[in-house]
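Researcher: Here's the sequence for the chain we discussed earlier.
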Amino acid sequence: MTFETWLLFLLTSTGIALTPGPNGLLALTHGALHGNRRALWTICGGVAGLVAVMGLCMFGIGALVQRSALWLTGLKLVGGAYLVWLGIRLWLSPPIVLDAPVAGLPVRGWGLFRAGFLTAATNPKGLLFFSALLPQFLSADRSLAGQFLVMGATYAVVEFAVEYLYAAAAHRVRPWLARVGRRFNRVCGGIFVTIGAALPLR
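Model: Thanks. This is the structure I predict for it:
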């Protein structure tokens, strides 16, 4: 992976991580309920689950790419269209409303870790999302394992940092999302549309 490609992946990962998904909302809830230190278990579980899904998608895609480079081009176009569709849906979606944390959530460290991991690993949308995103940055003539290490580590660091910020600022982020949620959705939706439209043309 060239430095320019990695930098583009870093910027893309940051924009995606800032969009509150199931793991970000779980970290936010656990941060409000248990404090940001305890929520570290949740965050680590979520990041581990996302990297596992990412690896599953990447090596599955890699098997197709090894058969024919045309697969990579096709996956880029289909993936780009899917990202545009996600962006349009996010643009039109109502603001996120975060209810008060529910009592009875796991309080032990491994329980929080498991909750984070399962939230990421069992979300079918994660498979679809990474299957659409990763081909935009894969190179057919480079080591798949090396690309996975770079992209997996980059995404893990970005996701960890963003989820920790959510958990640490839980009491401030909840009312902020309620106040500017629609504008936030439009910004994030615009990011997805731009990514989906621009990356396949590189």
